[in-house]
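Hi P.,

Sorry for the delay on this. The queue was packed all week, but I finally got your sequence through. Input first:
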Amino acid sequence: MTDPERAAAESGLAAKPTSASRTTLSHIMTHNDTNLLGTVHGGVIMKLVDDAAGAVAGRHSEGPAVTASMDEMVFLEPVRVGDLVHVKAQVNWTGRTSMEVGVRVLAERWNESSPATQVGTAYLVFAAVDPEGKPRPVPPVMPETERDRRRYQEAHIRRTHRLARRRAIRELRRQRESEGLRDE
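Then the structure:
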């Protein structure tokens, strides 16, 4: 039994394939999106990433989901005014109430037929919430392709690192507190 199959059996929820919630958000960049260097502001790209990832998380969990963290946002190439940006997102991994959404950002000139270039990547963690804002269970994700299986395994590694980092920081803070050191 694979991890996704085990998660489905334990949760009692039917697993959903990665393709069920995969989505692409496209947006043309204008002068309103630029920074002081004349390229598109990273925050504009980050908002598009969060919007696409939120749509995917909501689709997968069949209800509201909130951004819990952005693990990593990597900008590979600048985005320019006139670029048509495509933000492609999918659920890579699910826990009991959370899910990692992987995002690829591509850009192409609006008036050219050349292929799109990958300009960024991001990994976000979303928590599914009920109407009171409390965590609720999410269906397990079922990887469909070798690429999906690789993304699932990599997401599990990122989760392990997130949890280890969180524990190490908590331990350091407890240690400093026990030594009488306080942050001001």
